[in-house]
């Protein structure tokens, strides 16, 4: 599906404009504390004319071998805030009691992010750091998420391939 930069998009958002739209796909999850799993995901990046951030929402669910939804998994909501010199700030919230501040860079369809701060409620699972990589490859959005949690060092937890659906 071809993408065109919206005419009313603030120029500050041009470096991340390739993200705007609705994406859907599947991925794999793993971590030493859980069994490997397959998941489906829907992601929406949207903007408000005149504002210099993208609104972000992600929903995922556990799927079986046939791609059928079994149960809800994670949700995220946040804001992607491009800065000068190809820098990027991202603020994410999770209903599990975690708020993250990510910092990184964006360059020609590639985004690298690392947590700058992780704040948890008393009832959330132990999670201390993360690293994300996003890349636009032949029109698809690939991403991977490494994390340090539950007493384990940084290692891969999630990876997915998403296709633009709108």
Automatic annotation (TrEMBL):
Q: Give the cofactor binding note.
A: Binds 1 heme b group per subunit, that coordinates a highly solvent-exposed Fe(III) atom.
Record's keyword annotation contains Mitochondrion: no
The catalytic activity of this protein is classed by the Enzyme Commission as: 5.99.-.-
Question: THAP4-like heme-binding domain: from which residue to which, for each copy?
Answer: 13-164
What this protein needs as a cofactor is:
heme b
Keyword entries, A-Z: Heme, Iron, Isomerase, Metal-binding
Looking up Pfam families in the UniProt record yields: THAP4_heme-bd
Q: Which residues bind heme b?
A: 33, 125, 157
State which residue ranges cross the membrane.
Answer: none
Pathway this chain belongs to: Nitrogen metabolism
**Which is an annotated GO molecular function term of this record?**
peroxynitrite isomerase activity
Annotated motif GXWXGXG, positions: 21-27
- Give the catalysed reaction(s), semicolon-separated: peroxynitrite = nitrate
Which InterPro entries does the UniProt record give? Answer: Calycin, Nb(III)_bact/plant, Nitrobindin, THAP4-like_heme-bd
What UniProt notes about the protein's domains is: Forms a 10-stranded antiparallel beta-barrel structure able to accommodate a hydrophobic ligand in its interior. In fact, this fold hosts the heme group, which is located in a wide surface cleft.
Protein function: Heme-binding protein able to scavenge peroxynitrite and to protect free L-tyrosine against peroxynitrite-mediated nitration, by acting as a peroxynitrite isomerase that converts peroxynitrite to nitrate. Therefore, this protein likely plays a role in peroxynitrite sensing and in the detoxification of reactive nitrogen and oxygen species (RNS and ROS, respectively). Is able to bind nitric oxide (NO) in vitro, but may act as a sensor of peroxynitrite levels in vivo.
Give the record's family classification: Belongs to the nitrobindin family.
Q: What is this protein called?
A: Peroxynitrite isomerase
Q: Which organism is it from?
A: Actinospica durhamensis
- What are the top taxonomic ranks of the organism? Bacteria, Bacillati, Actinomycetota, Actinomycetes, Catenulisporales
